[in-house]
Amino acid sequence: MEERDTTKRETTVRKEQVISMYQRLEEFLESKDFEDDFKKLLEISNPNYMKLLEKRKIDIERSDHGIVIAGETSAGKSTLINKILEKRIFKGRNSESTSTVCKIRNSERVQITVEHLSGQMEVIDLTDKCDGNTEEGLRMLRSKLKDLTDMTLSQESKQYKSVDIGLPIPFLKGDTLLVDTPGIGGAGEVSHKLMDYLPNALSFVFVINVASAGGMQRDRLPEILKSLISLKIDDEMPCFDPRDVIFITNKWDTIPKEESDSEEEDEETKTWNNIRTEIKARWPAVKEEYIYKLSLTEVSPKKNNKSVEQFKEFQKVLMINIEKAETARVTEHLRFLQELLRSVTTNLQARLQLEKKSEDEQISLTKDHQRDIDTLRQKCKEVGQNLRKRITVHITTTAETSYEYMSTSMGKVKILNPSGYSAIVDVCDSPEGCANEVRRRFGLYIDSYLKSDEVVHEFTLIQKDTEIFYKETNLKLNAMQNKWSEVLKDDKGTTSEEASALSALGIAAAVVLLPFGLPLVAFAFTVGILSLGFAPVRFVWDWFWGKDQKKRDAIDKEYENCRVTVRKTVRVQLETNAGTVLEKLIVKVTENELPRRIGALEELIKQLRTSRQKIIDKRNMLEILQGKIIEMEKSILKFQKELQ
């Protein structure tokens, strides 16, 4: 109890400190001393900066530090939470029934807070009726939660935005929450609740049912991963670190364990290798040790097996993420404050250094830099157009290549009878069954093709070229900026030039060098690769002779349907996945971030030229402003050290 109160107080104090820093900065930016020229510059480099400050201040006041548990319906999310809490507060569900987001937090009291879609809050206090440490108390809690969240019992539960569950859980420090979510692939309005909660999350645990279509819910999980990337690029999830995502592969007890003298891998090994490959393809930032293999039904304090060992390793990583969640939001807000202050400092230093330049030197430097600015601005347009054109050309070429391959006899044979799988006639019993199997194997081909090196390589090059252009342009802008700022030293001997460069490179890293790769999501088929079934490979031409003509006709007809649509299939998949994310990144770099920096530098040079004497005459006032900024920066640096 005492430790929890201490942690709560520390969290509250930290938030109050950051909020106080925001308020000080707001007062400074709204003061008369911060003149219109400064405001104009800051508006160019940081559009709507006052609204952004208010938005950030609201964000730091959030009490939720959510670690989201997500996965397809019946993957084992609720079971995982029960195992983590060592309390069975959720009933196991084998169908789509959970209607809302459930938040679990540490609380002295046992209570449930229901938030309606209308915004109305309803508190149900069970402290005097329910002891969370007894089976009877847990049974009462389970029953109440089922009434509130199971849409098969009541449609009213769909009107709840979230259900907040408070009970004594000491390891959930501060305001860290475990968040149980509706199953991926469920009803539209239910899935929207999950998607709407994503920006609030600091970390994720994805639970994958290996018995379902090879493990990955191919139509919804990739969509969530893509949404996370888009939100990160758009700065809507500034505190989320993609490297902290955990994947639990569950229900391995449903995969047959086969003893075989064959050199081929057994089904369990093949499934494990395929799922790891699939996860890495969809979420390249994942750490190998953050992919776990277990069966939650085999996890128990009384047992000692591989699933228990894996679960214990998972618990260690989860605790690390919980510790990080305590300070992640505060750390991110301090970084944001620091960067905004450095934008102001850079402009202020240029003014303070102006009198050291003669008018002739200033005129000469202005001409040189205006020429460079015009060149960089044009370069942004050209590079943006070129990068987008490369995306279009690559997608078109990739689609055409797939069509040409499917049009060859060898391509048809390999697609219909892939290596390691049964011949197609051995797994279909009717013309309809053969047509379905053709579509499944076509899906296997598309899935493999879209993840092949020949497809991924060009997208990767486009991403790298975008990053390189951003870094190189930033370095040029830093060098130009430093020509005006010259060298000012603080009390630690750090030059303003160094601080400016570090700040700019820090921004560049935050914008472009994202710690994950592109979500090159493969084609979404209902039946996955692993459901096709493995069998010894037979001579693939056998089926052309002596088989039922209707079967052959059905196979040929459906293959032709797939062939004539493959270009559109490939194009749509690449455009809506890799293409969309790359376009977003390119636009952010070449149309937003770099043009803003270029525009801010151009405006600074213009102000220095047109108001030279006025700026020089205000040196005393500028030094006072500098002193205020230095004090704010020192406060931030001190706070950052305390958090380390």
From TrEMBL:
<dbReference type="Pfam" id="PF00350">
    <property type="entry name" value="Dynamin_N"/>
</dbReference>
<dbReference type="InterPro" id="IPR027417">
    <property type="entry name" value="P-loop_NTPase"/>
</dbReference>
<keyword id="KW-0472">Membrane</keyword>
<dbReference type="InterPro" id="IPR045063">
    <property type="entry name" value="Dynamin_N"/>
</dbReference>
<keyword id="KW-1133">Transmembrane helix</keyword>
<keyword id="KW-0812">Transmembrane</keyword>
<protein>
    <submittedName>
        <fullName>Uncharacterized protein LOC111099495</fullName>
    </submittedName>
</protein>
<feature type="transmembrane region" description="Helical">
    <location>
        <begin position="522"/>
        <end position="541"/>
    </location>
</feature>
<feature type="domain" description="Dynamin N-terminal">
    <location>
        <begin position="67"/>
        <end position="209"/>
    </location>
</feature>
